[in-house]
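Record 1 of the preview.
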Amino acid sequence: MRKFILLFALLFSIASIAQSNSSLAQRRAAHLRHGINFSEWFAQVYDPKGYTREHLETWVTADDVALVKSMGFDHIRLSVNPEPMMRHNMADHLPPDYLGYLDAAIKMILDHGLAVIIDMHPESEFKARLVQHDDSVEQFSDYWRAIAQHYSTCDPEMVYFEVLNEPEFRDRYRWVGVQAKLAAAIREGAPQHTIIAAGANWSDVEDLLVLTPLPDPNVIYNFHFYDPHTFTHQGATWGANYWHFESKLAYPANLGTAQKVAASEPDAYNRLQVLRYGLDHWDANRIAIEIGQAAEWAKHWNVPLTCNEFGVFRRASDPQDRARWLHDVRTILEGYGIGWNMWDFGGRDGGKGFGVVNGPREGPNTPDEVTVEALGLKH
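->
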């Protein structure tokens, strides 16, 4: 009988710890309510010069971080490409010079009272190696363990570790195993910090819905929302080829506008994609149903949930249509109690990307008033 009592006490203790950690993740998710992505600083650097000292020290300034704080954001998702810091077969040996630049960036964010998500954000080729080669997963695990250990002395209420941005794993079952291994490596390096995990492929709602949560309870789950891409990525020169033919496609969707935009598409199949957008009733109700499924998933598993990316490409979209979409997504997320992080700060693209600011290539960035208002913030 005494053995059964001891076993019951042990199981009760384990369950209590798991519940406590789950509550901890829920509480920490409250620090991630209104965020903005910082891209093209430690990731997505396509300048031939690469990740130079000049770039890393000047791309984002203290004034930019102060501007983010003044607009009412509470956290920054910092994209980090692991490749410049990874040494082949020595991934746990982090180069001190490069790490110093990252340390300075994270300190600058924290000094302004903003939480920071360290988001591993490599290029597609890096992720393809994780899909194909176990050795690449081993090395990435070593790297993550070292990064997590390095930042384990930071306040766990303010620093979060995101396993991998948009994994691009078509094999969802392989991603389950890879993510579990990477999360375990993070946990070894930083026992107290909260991990952010996501579904396979592009981390869309449907990728989240087939995900089984990790055995680690101190995890926040994340999805991205750009639906429908026909609208949000109009004018873009990456992804689907037909996007770059689109301009001024309206939101909410209506067939009349879609027919006008479809007329500019030279390919019949692509014309159909635009016409389908006009027929598919994309409005606040449709978005609420889509995001509602993610909310139901989180409720079913009793886990916290965030949306770490959503946005509309500015170059070819009407500002008011873009603002309506941002407003609808943002308010629906908030209605479900889901924290959000818009893509992205922008800045040096002159207001032509996804940015929340109108950034000249020289001089200070200024808030884009229409975007800030759609996000329910101040400017």
